[in-house]
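Same chain as my last thread, 289 residues:
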Amino acid sequence: MKFLKAIFLFFVPYGLVKLYANYKESKKPDLRLQDQHKAERDANQLEETVLENDRKTISVDYNAITHFFMETFNIEESHVLGGSIPQENCDRIIQAIVKNYSTNRITGLNIGNFLGVAFTYILSNMVQNNNQSTFVSVDPNIPHRGISDLETKFISCLHEYNLQDNSLIINGYSLRKNTSNDGVIFDNYDPKEAFDLEKGCTGVLDKLTQLGKNNFQFVILDGNHHSEYLQQELERCTSLLAPNGILFLDDIDKNWKLLKKSAFHFLKANNHAFEELYYDGRILALRRK
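reply #2:
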């Protein structure tokens, strides 16, 4: 049979042979197209599974969040809790937000994130009230308390509790670049020596203002702890905060005397624009008039 086929091909013009070969090829199923269709079907099924999981509203326990970081990344409890806003203060923040906005869709801004314990806890409660709410985080992802790659750990936590769809993470400094750990050496990590190695976008608050003013219903300030830096952040946040919005300042206590002095000086100088909502010994909450 092969011999007869060889004789046939020898006498038939090449053009006809080529034409016949192309015809046979056209009748074959396009395997690449089939593979593409299968890949699309698999991707769609996977996306549907992810969406179904995302629709599940999870009430997140504060202790569960702290244990997630301890168990998943082997971080000491003292570091997880020491760098985070305590639960009792978070509960007061949540209470103020809910009282102010009830079940309305809201957008919050968090400056200074660390691992994101408070962020995750507060956001989970926001989503409980309205699953269209969004929380924006601004942090340069530089080492803190001897822990590096904070952003990856933070994102893992958001995925653990299906909060990634309600989050926006901005890797950068609220204003200009500054030293991590407020310049303090922590676990042999010297911020001054590592300063040139730490990278991040700068001027984030100014850029957010360019995108639009009064876009945030609340802002939590828990980043740089130098009083002059805080004053400049407060000035920017005034433009970003919506009327009747709430500004929460963390670490306004006896351990940060200059920070506390700066915060209350801002309130006194801007009493035409802000009123004190509450002060619990750590968090100073101001409401924009």
